[in-house]
Design a protein that fits this description.
It is built from 16 helices and no strands. The protein is mostly helical.
Length: 348
């Protein structure tokens, strides 16, 4: 019988392969060449140094939003509010980055911490209501996504700009941009944020696997009633889990504001970084290492898809179908497990 560890490795891999295979069938059914389509996708992600830099740039916030959702999942919570936490983190980072003057050694960390604090604050309220009133976190976080979107637009137009549709640009001392990385990748928007994202993944792994608090988070996620009986403070752990989850998502907003753009435009709709983070976390098995790998896959798909219409004539929307199919197969993991177990029995 397959062990749980082996199963957790096989299911994402098989899900990705099934999603890609199903996508190839759809391409073929609509008259497109799937080999040319996937070749164009690969070239669009790794065809030259510019595309490679853009892929890493896209991967960076995906790692952080994936970590945000995964951390909450490991504690038995569904943080669908990562999107709103990204937005408030972006606002906070740009606000601090554009409104004060300080040496980089102070200004940049302060801007990043402001984003983490804003995201944590946006995760605190759902956690508090969940812990004290039993209000489901999905309902609260969905509503707070819209609050974040419209409040951020108000702040951009009335507080951190001169009345335009975008904030003031951040100072150079608050920027994650790197001239040598840009030159190395043919002037892509790759920046130092990837280092922040990897450090965040290590921090999540350390908290969950090497600390007593991490043990309590996981225990509460498995069974809050048994955890309470064992003497754990369930309410505190629920709130703290949502706060840490929100901080990770807020950092994703900082990567956009301090790294990719250097400012924040007003948004008429969501960025979808937080929602994509749900898929990244699911595919990564809600582990730190798995989330990083899944984020790379999603970054490749998203950036590579931009090359498919021009190089192969395949609509880039098809990649969204492939992603949806991958998520479907991950969500239907019990089918894959049944199939693997059946194969194991037939071998005997």
């Amino acid at each position: 019988m397959f062990s749980n560890r082996l199963f957790n490795i096989f299911v994402p891999i098989i899900s990705v392969l099934l999603g890609l295979f199903a996508g190839a069938i759809i391409m073929f059914a609509f008259g497109y060449n799937p080999i040319e389509g996937y070749q164009a996708l690969w070239d669009g992600a790794f065809g030259n140094s510019y595309f490679f830099g853009e892929t890493i740039r896209q991967v960076t916030p995906y790692i952080l939003t994936g970590l945000a959702v995964a951390f909450a999942f490991r504690s038995g919570l569904f943080n669908i509010g990562a999107e709103g936490q990204v937005i408030v983190g972006w606002v906070a980072a740009v606000w601090v980055g554009s409104s004060i003057e300080a040496p980089m050694v102070i200004h940049l960390p302060l801007s990043i911490l402001a984003a983490a604090f804003a995201g944590a604050l946006w995760g605190f309220l759902p956690g508090l209501l969940k812990a004290t009133k039993g209000v489901h976190e999905v309902i609260i976080t969905i509503m707070m996504n819209y609050i974040a979107l419209h409040v951020s637009n108000y702040l951009i137009r009335n507080v951190i700009s001169d009345g335009g549709d975008s904030s003031d640009r951040i100072g150079d001392t608050a920027s994650l941009a790197s001239n040598w990385l840009m030159e190395l990748t043919d002037y892509s928007r790759m920046h130092y944020g990837i280092i922040v994202a990897i450090i965040a993944a290590i921090i999540m792994w350390f908290i969950l696997e090497k600390t007593s608090s991490g043990y309590e988070f996981k225990a509460v996620g498995f069974n809050p009633h048994a955890s309470k009986y064992a003497g754990m403070n369930v309410k505190k752990n629920i709130i703290l889990s949502m706060v840490i989850s929100g901080a990770f998502a807020g950092l994703a907003g900082a990567m956009e504001g301090l790294g990719t753009f250097g400012y924040m435009p007003s948004h008429s709709a969501f960025t979808n970084l937080g929602f994509d983070g749900i898929a990244v976390a699911l595919l990564g098995g809600n582990t730190a290492f798995g989330t990083v790998i899944a984020a790379f896959l999603f970054g490749i798909l998203k950036i590579g898809a931009l090359n498919m219409p021009t190089s192969a004539g395949v609509p880039s929307e098809l990649v969204e179908i492939v992603i949806a199919l991958i998520i479907f197969f991950v969500a239907s993991s019990y089918i894959i497990r049944w199939f693997l177990l059946r194969m194991r029995k037939e071998e005997k």
